[in-house]
Amino acid sequence: xxxxxxxxxxxxxxxxxxxxxxxxxxxxxxxxxxxxxxxxxxxxxxxxxxxxxxxxxxxxxxxxxxxxxxxxxxxxxxxxxxxxxxxxxxxxxxxxxxxxxxxxxxxxxxxxxxxxxxxxxxxxxxxxxxxxxxxxxxxxxxxxxxx
Length: 147
What we know:
mainly alpha, 7 helices, 73% helix
């Protein structure tokens, strides 16, 4: 074949291009930023607030059911059949959780911007902080006795 490419050549070339574009073998997962365990969780939507209550009701009516998919399907069907008036309490609950989340996120972002380490504040209890102060006071008292 003069100047022509075989099927194998074009297929391999296309595969190579896709692999280069995806960055295969470059260790992209290692470059992913670690998730901060102190960051507040996002609030649930109105549907998930509804599902918290629905799961309990479904479990009472069907105690022998072990399928998560069946519960989800039944909950989704009921949610679709509900009117906006029926959904209103769940929407209100979701909005309430969203405002709480926004408050927590504002405090979290303030701590990050302030440069304080979030772990230091939460790991020490008040008694541990007071213990540190008491040790300093005791050492100061011993110095006074020496004089």
